[in-house]
Amino acid sequence: MTNRLIAGVLFSLLIIAAYAGYTVYSVNQMRDVETNIVERNRRASLQLIRIQSDLNALALAMRDMQDPSPSHEYGLSAWRAQFQRIRENLNDAIAKETQLNAGRRNPAQVLFLKSSLDQFFTTADELFATSDLTIIRDRLQPAQESLASLTARLLVGNTEEDQRASQDIANIYDGIERNAYIFLAVASILIAATGYALIRQNNRVFQQTAELSAQRSELARQLITMQESTLRSISRDLHDEFGQILTALGAMLRRAEKQAPDTQFRESVREVSTIVQDTLDKVRSLSQSLHPVILEEQGLAAAITWYLGVFEHQQGITVTRQGPLPQVHDLAHAIQVFRILQEALNNVARHAAVRDVIVRTTATSLEVEDHGPGIRSGHRIGIGLTAMQERATLIGATLTMTQPATGKGTLVRLQLPNV
User: pLDDT for 125-141, tens place per residue?
Assistant: First the structure.
């Protein structure tokens, strides 16, 4: 099987190389036509259009020069600089157009265009010297029209040359297309045979990959389940064992404070009692964070409201919540949503370096948006983000991490399945 695959691939590469060589040769022919004719004609036509534009500017200027309006307080001399600029531009355009069409145009046409232009501006110099407006009507305007007509004829000639070049290019395309059908017929047979063998081999690889993916998902589910079980156990131990011990200790200290024989000793007992109470509050808070009882007793909405307040107090980050709270009635799903919210907010506290965060909720979605530096390009996804993805997959939800509409920061969006 391997030898046949190699032979098929090598023969396919040989056919492709032969066709590629033919295509390169044809394309080079086409490129020569385009470079020598089409491109040069295009650039020459642009120069002719440039000449036409300058001639039109001269026509407009001559029309304005004959206007008897009193606004022409400076007389004909006001147009001398404009005529000079147009003359320089025309000379430059004619020189470039002549260079582009060298050897392909009748020299008499070029000579006539140059001499007509020189004669026009010689007459214009006479106009500025004498201020005789009849020169415009009798000599300059007819000369301008003659130059415009000649430029139009030259453009038509370029267009006809382009059409002939386009036909040559079309013939080359036809040859490439005809040979492409032959190549496709041969290549299709080889690709079909080789592809069939590759598909069979890939199917085996895909099947193994699917089995490994299923095993990974099952392992992730078991690890998350074990994690939740461990957190629940630790939370219960903290609440039932340490909590009760600290509560009893606090009660004993309060009795001791009442029975203290002197004020100094009573003050020391009160300080110890305060420390014990603070420790009890921290233990209860830690117990709730590990496994919030409120989630089981009052549901996801109450747990989210409680946790956002705790997060604000502990991290000093203002949380702005928007929208109705999610409606998730399945406790197993609610736990995963709550953990994803915890991890998203913890990431904001650890990495975003911001003073506020926005939490948007709907009945079937949850968003956490910050305006920090965002996720750097090429940044490796950590364990926390991977766990969030796995938790979302377990409940059939979709987790995405993008950039907010503001263009700065990170937007984590959890889209819950319709329940």
Answer: 888 888 888 888 888 88
